[in-house]
Write a structure and sequence with these properties.
Elements lengths: L1 E2 L2 E2 L1 E6 L5 E7 L2 E9 L5 E6 L5 E8 L5 E9 L3 E9 L27 H12 L4 H8 L6 H6 L1 H5 L12 H10 L3 H13 L4 H17 L9 H29 L10 H16 L4 H11 L1 H14 L4 H7 L29 H7 L8 H23 L7 H15 L4 H11 L8 H17 L1 H7 L11
Antiparallel strand pairs: 1-2, 3-4, 4-5, 5-6, 6-7, 7-8, 8-9
Helix pairs in contact: 1-8, 5-8, 6-7, 6-9, 7-8, 8-9, 10-16, 11-17, 13-14, 13-15, 14-16, 14-17, 15-17, 16-17
Subunit structure: Homodimer. Forms a heteromeric complex with ALS2. Interacts with ALS2 and RAB5A.
GO molecular function: GTPase activator activity; guanyl-nucleotide exchange factor activity; small GTPase binding
Protein name: ALS2 C-terminal-like protein
Length: 468
């Protein structure tokens, strides 16, 4: 929060060294107690000076769970000194307490973010979208149809009846009135948000630039992931409110009755089902980077597990994962003259594997869930073909088969993908099939992380020197 161009009120600061501070500022100076997270995930709670030197009473929690509580201070050239109690008997901390500790969430309302961006737009809509204020809102001059006809661009184009200028406010408002049905509204909003001359497109572009300035470079810090994803959701809510505001102005200009206010449930359905998928690509790069940083350790273990499972031929991997043999699609395996069944790899459940690999080709959480649902359908279709009848897989049979497909798909950074889908998906999917399949995918991800330990625990079971 800022006041008179000075940091004032609650805030979060990130340094080039990767140190994160959360606390209170007064006239650009840190005051009172706060939280300090160092690059090695050590956590300090207490008071410190403007240059982030620990001073006064405080508590340090180290990544291994040890705690140091007491008084801290520093002298000229003497470094940091403390007097307190070091507790080495504490249990290892929950990862969310230090390594995954999130800053900024809840210290100030999300609705208070970026009022300097939203304020001028709200004023413009409240005034009825006057033409003389359009240039100030959009930041540059917008030609009307008469100016367009006189312009060099018009002289160079085909001498046919010119299309209405969609960049004029009259045309923009008319477009909103003509496209209010769900399917037409989606396409209308898509065009508006992709057009920097449209008020909604201009607003989205400004929000995108503020997001990049905040969460790229120094701001690409794993402790800001939750703050960033909440900010994206808030931007979606504000963009929907901006659309509703423009629509009310359009109705008013035509002398029509304004639409009734939406309830919270209806608004959330529109925000998550309509606006968020359209605007998410503008923020995806920076947002996904934060997910990568936050889940880097788990994704590293997962990658090692995938590398280990990749050494298995298909039949050995199916056996290792305890997939029931009557579900093995051996008829899908085509052998050459000198090839043995036990040596074939990457052939079983190939259609499901190729389907799951498409989950990284889209940024829309809804489309990612659809890929997961199609993958489930491909697994069941393969099993039904093997059994010669339609077969619905129980969870006990589905999980090992899904682990097999995930291990063969070799999707990088699957943990980051899963958590982003979970955080950004439409709440309408909660409790449904997509939610169930996402939970199953999470279980596969966690299981694969443990495969390295499992393989070392039974070194003789699948000895690499054993003939396959």
């Amino acid at each position: 929060m800022w006041q008179a161009d000075l940091r004032h009120g609650p805030g979060v600061m990130v340094t080039q060294a990767g140190v994160c501070y959360q606390g209170t500022f007064q006239a650009d100076k840190m005051v009172g107690p706060g939280i300090l997270l160092s690059e090695d995930d050590s956590l300090y709670e207490g008071t410190f000076t403007r240059d982030l030197t620990l001073v006064g009473k405080g508590k340090v929690t180290f990544p291994n769970g040890f705690t140091l509580e007491g008084s801290f201070g520093s002298g000229a050239g003497k470094g940091l000194h403390t007097q307190g109690v070091l507790d080495t008997a504490a249990f290892p901390p929950d990862p969310s307490s230090t390594r995954k500790r999130q800053l900024g969430v809840g210290i100030f309302p999300m609705e208070s973010h970026w009022q300097g961006v939203y304020g001028p737009f709200r004023d413009f809509v409240s005034a009825g979208c006057p033409g003389d204020e359009q240039e100030a809102l959009l930041g540059f001059h917008v030609q009307n149809s008469r100016e367009l006809r006189k312009s060099q661009e018009y002289l160079c184009c085909e001498r046919t009846q010119p299309e209405p200028c969609v960049d004029r406010m009259e045309g923009i408002l008319d477009e909103l009135l003509l496209h209010r049905e769900p399917r037409a509204l989606r396409e209308c909003l898509r065009k508006a948000l992709s057009n920097s001359l449209h008020p909604l497109g201009k607003l989205l572009r400004t929000l995108m630039l503020t997001f990049q300035a905040t969460y790229a470079g120094i701001g690409a810090n794993k402790h800001l992931q939750a703050l960033a994803q909440e900010e994206v959701k808030q931007h979606a809510r504000e963009l929907w409110a901006a659309y509703r505001g423009l629509l009310q102005v359009a109705l008013q200009r035509k002398g029509q009755a304004p639409e009734e206010d939406e309830d919270t449930e209806t608004r959330d359905l529109q925000v998550h089902g309509l606006v968020l998928p359209l605007m998410l690509p503008s923020f995806y790069s920076e947002l996904f980077t934060l997910y990568l940083l936050l889940h880097e350790m788990e994704d590293s273990l997962y990658s090692q597990g995938i590398a280990n499972l990749s050494l298995f031929p298909d039949t050995k991997l199916l056996e290792f994962l305890d997939v029931q043999k009557h579900l093995w699609p051996l008829k899908d395996l085509t052998l050459t003259t000198n090839q043995r069944l036990s040596l074939v790899r990457d052939k079983c459940f190939l259609s499901a594997t190729e389907c799951l690999q498409k989950i990284i080709t889209t940024v829309d959480p809804r489309e990612k869930l659809e890929v997961l649902e199609r993958t489930y359908g491909e697994i069941e279709a393969t099993v039904s073909r093997v059994l010669g009848r339609e077969h619905k897989l129980p969870m006990d049979d589905l999980l090992p088969l899904l682990i097999y497909v995930v291990s063969r798909a070799r999707i990088q950074h699957l943990g980051a993908e899963i958590h982003l889908i979970r955080d950004m998906m439409d709440p309408i999917h909660t409790g449904g099939l997509c939610d169930f399949l996402l939970t199953a995918l999470e279980s596969c991800y966690e299981h694969i992380q443990k495969e390295d330990m499992r393989l070392h625990r039974f070194p003789g079971r699948w000895d690499s020197r054993e003939p396959w």
